[in-house]
């Protein structure tokens, strides 16, 4: 009986081109997300020359900038970082929902990982917790997801090539 084949991303050989697209709105929270993402990439062997930081006004503008990055072939993975904090109007739902939906669509359209590190929280305290205090750093988590997907897709591409050569 053959063992079940398993494929999963590793955190070795993850040096690739990463674009971190950053929404400046709520920068007091987002800056810490960026620090976490960059630190995580570098600690896992990504050359700083392979990291590009791209700043946009806020979460609403993230998808358009991400699309341009992908169209230009600038990155093997994108990390989208921002913070949308609920206010007293329905604006929150529109921004957060549209941003997340567009990022997912772009990931599939361009066949390139987009790690979503855009905080969508009810309060500033929740945002602070998720940017490096009690709840960890979601920028770090997004960078880890991006690296894991780069590794996984490389393995899958090698498997597809091996299957094609076997035919």
From TrEMBL:
Enzyme Commission number(s): 2.5.1.78
Protein name: 6,7-dimethyl-8-ribityllumazine synthase
Pfam families: DMRL_synthase
Transmembrane segment boundaries: none
Top-tier EC class: transferase
Signal peptide range in chain numbering: none
Alphabetical UniProt keywords: Riboflavin biosynthesis, Transferase
One CC-aspect GO term: cytosol
GO MF term list: 6,7-dimethyl-8-ribityllumazine synthase activity
Active-site residue list: 91 (proton donor)
Reaction catalysis annotation: (2S)-2-hydroxy-3-oxobutyl phosphate + 5-amino-6-(D-ribitylamino)uracil = 6,7-dimethyl-8-(1-D-ribityl)lumazine + phosphate + 2 H2O + H(+)
Record note on quaternary structure: Forms an icosahedral capsid composed of 60 subunits, arranged as a dodecamer of pentamers.
SUPFAM superfamilies, sorted: Lumazine synthase
Superkingdom of the organism of origin: Bacteria
PANTHER family named in the record: 6,7-DIMETHYL-8-RIBITYLLUMAZINE SYNTHASE, 6,7-DIMETHYL-8-RIBITYLLUMAZINE SYNTHASE DMRL SYNTHASE LUMAZINE SYNTHASE
Annotated pathway: Cofactor biosynthesis; riboflavin biosynthesis; riboflavin from 2-hydroxy-3-oxobutyl phosphate and 5-amino-6-(D-ribitylamino)uracil: step 1/2
